[in-house]
Amino acid sequence: MAMSTMIHNHLPAIPHTGVNRNKLVARAHQEAPVVDHPINGTKASKRAARLAESLSNLLHLHVEPPQRREVMKHYSSWDSFGDDEKHSTPTMSPKQMISDKWREIHGCTDWDSLLDPLHPCLRREILKYGEFAQATYDAFDFDPFSEYCGSCRFNSNKIFEKLGLDGKHGYKVCKYIYAMSHIDMPQWLNRTVHLGDTWSRDSNWMGFVAISDEEETRRIGRRDIVVAWRGTVAPSEWYEDFQRKLEPIGPGDDAKVEHGFHSIYTSKSEHTRYSKSSASEQVMKEVTRLVKLYKEKGEEVSLTITGHSLGGALALLNAYEAATTIPGLPISVISFGAPRVGNIAFRDQLHQMGVKTLRVVVKQDLVPKMPGVVFNEGLQKFDEITGTLDWVYTHVGAELRLDVRSSPYLKHGFNLLGFHSQETYLHLVDGFVCQSSSFREDARRDVALVNKACDMLVDELRIPHCWYQMENKGLVRNAHGRWVKPKREAEDVPVPVGSQPNFHALDKIVESRRLQPVYV
Amino acid sequence: MAMSTMIHNHLPAIPHTGVNRNKLVARAHQEAPVVDHPINGTKASKRAARLAESLSNLLHLHVEPPQRREVMKHYSSWDSFGDDEKHSTPTMSPKQMISDKWREIHGCTDWDSLLDPLHPCLRREILKYGEFAQATYDAFDFDPFSEYCGSCRFNSNKIFEKLGLDGKHGYKVCKYIYAMSHIDMPQWLNRTVHLGDTWSRDSNWMGFVAISDEEETRRIGRRDIVVAWRGTVAPSEWYEDFQRKLEPIGPGDDAKVEHGFHSIYTSKSEHTRYSKSSASEQVMKEVTRLVKLYKEKGEEVSLTITGHSLGGALALLNAYEAATTIPGLPISVISFGAPRVGNIAFRDQLHQMGVKTLRVVVKQDLVPKMPGVVFNEGLQKFDEITGTLDWVYTHVGAELRLDVRSSPYLKHGFNLLGFHSQETYLHLVDGFVCQSSSFREDARRDVALVNKACDMLVDELRIPHCWYQMENKGLVRNAHGRWVKPKREAEDVPVPVGSQPNFHALDKIVESRRLQPVYV
């Protein structure tokens, strides 16, 4: 309590800068008028109309007329949004020195009285960590026809540069983390017996460990180690999450966590190239090394673990292990749209060890209701299956609750994918002032990012949906005019943990097995 | 008859180079084994499974395991297809001199005995014209959020270069054709009163007129004028096609054509910038000019009109008008997947005027069955509605019939879009030997092209589906890190018919009205 008051003192009060939300929402909800179908009348003509409709799908891409809405005067009528002035501003609020209050911002008082209203310095830190979580998606190779499917598209030295994050946040990636994927990888992989040698059909890139540079370290008052966990991609990873089995974690048998998450975090196999050690072992080895390195230099060190969706669940398991292994280290978890992970005892142990957790949750997002949506609310005859109450999954820590309807830039209609998207989360964090106010007028984060992989922005903004895509899905025309997949640059080919990069040897493997329609 | 024999004499017989199709098809039809669902058993767990399934959609892009198939040994096991040798060959058979037999190839004998087996020289010409038809899709601006939606993305001087067709076919574009679009353009266009001044909400780019260069003219034995018509894009254009009303065309009242097609071909309005003259007037003016120009030079001149889907229908109307207007000009139509256009009298008049029509038709494609599928086969009580028989739509000319199942590269499962795709047509033409043989072994056209805008290639080829796409849908990051749509290069901004390009003035219009999130 005393602590909380103290924070409030040296963190100045935040003005409520939001404008009247209701008015905007009311405008935004005006729907497109129903257009009369050009063909109507007889039964036969109705059949023709139906046929025409289904045939319109034949006709390559078709132009979908966006819904008609009123201009949202305060924010984003196209004319004002197209304004050069608006487009010339940086996409982040300026960095502020937080070296004297980093412990509070890092959660040492459970963010008490920093969340509503949201303190600007905390907002900026949440966005920083959230963009690290987003980076694990942006850099991931999703292409099922790529021989590197499931890896990171860039090596650890240039990932931030490639994603435009170099210089922005002042961190450097030290280590990549891999985990057993449990993916049913494309079947053709089985045809070539040794394809596993080149990349792995057993492992997926799951994130990275990064460290703050000198300048950022000065600004934030300590050397900050970040672990960013990637969320789920393949359905099989997700099914694994639904084994409906809590299993013990830690020294006692009280704390229990969901089996699927725990399995991804701890699985390993001698028969793989990237998962001879588990994700848990990889990450803890690197974190322990970094803590030791900087503590020996006399620096203050913190650990911040972040992740979206499944990544948020893994972050919590990671935090539990780190707190057990490295007592006294300030550890925080900033998770976005994460499902519940364990039981009440798990939560209590995390509390006791001093792990601070800030769960950023969009009210309309379904994933944070999981597995609880199945096992807490959804199941009528819950006891018949489980018998005891310590099977109940529970959430951990403080919550920053966001509402899609607070943003005048977003469509508010049901959108399973859009509500869960990490870019939606980051947009809403950027605009959040307090629970009773609406979107921040001076929010600066680029709104276009929201539509990267979904269709959430109102049409007036004229940002295409799902626009984050490679030119021709990576195919290029060779000298003969044929469309081929170029070889990945040698330095971006994943290299097994522990081995030295040997680009020449890898090239030879690729070449001799003709894994790709390679043309040089 | 005598003519047909003569052709056979100086066009040598074609060896049947196809391999046994049945064997390949049998292999290709082996299906992926059914994978057991990880969750099964109780009712509750089934609900969980369903939830998991629907939630897997939440998880960004997901990896779809391709179907398992046997390697297709003769063609495209990945290893042999990845072979450098195969990837180093040109994507077209070498050009042959056809100056002494161009009239037969152009259809003067209705391609009698040239189609089954397909004569290699004719195949090459069909592919040339088919690629012009495809170019009208590849260059079209489909982006509903673009202020140039419905225009050609490139100006006429560089369209072929941008599409990799410069030098390949030896033609030069002389003129773009626009038509009234009848499109319900995105509603936001209405907000800015004068947006119509910059680009047009009334008109769509519908294709081009091109002319053979000196070298190609020597090879093909005459100066060839090509008109390529774009197919349908917007559903509203297609609905228009279904007004189920034949209307008279030409001097008598006997010949009748479908109202929708005719309307697109002939509509104009003083209130538009691009359709003050109709597509008909634009194209006939240019063709007449070119015919006059080269006839006065003493050259032989031909007119070849091509188009896919709706474009094929417009090609036929165009041919009818050209034959009426310019008697004695050799006129051919090469259409791909075109619907029926008119009645029997229309067909007969085309015959009488000497218009030659080669309809390339994929057996599985639905569009060539239209509007017939509604009015000939589909409707039981046909007479009740129409009363007379001259309402019956009918096809015109010779037919080259292709079968999706002839190609071992293609998936054979039902695929409305894939069966109709022009790239599928071109692939099948390239592989066609004769009706009783299977895919040509020495077909050279790049197979990857088939998947440009659909998902028709077997997974072993590892070509992504719908891969023809712009990087980030045209968004680029400006100096501040914001994602914005760059202005189109001034020379690629559409310029109204008859006016001189005035890039500076156009720039000013764009600038002052802030139509785009422009950042320079």
UniProtKB/TrEMBL annotation, chains A, B:
Keyword match Lipid metabolism: yes
Subcellular location: Plastid, Chloroplast
One cellular-component annotation, GO: chloroplast
GO biological process: lipid catabolic process
Ranges where the Fungal lipase-type domain occurs: 226-373
GO molecular function, one term: phospholipase A1 activity
InterPro entries: AB_hydrolase_fold, Fungal_lipase-type
UniProt keyword Transferase present: no
Keywords: Chloroplast, Hydrolase, Lipid degradation, Lipid metabolism, Plastid, Transit peptide
Pfam families (alphabetical): Lipase_3
Family: Belongs to the AB hydrolase superfamily. Lipase family.
Name recorded for this polypeptide: Fungal lipase-type domain-containing protein
Gene source species: Citrus clementina
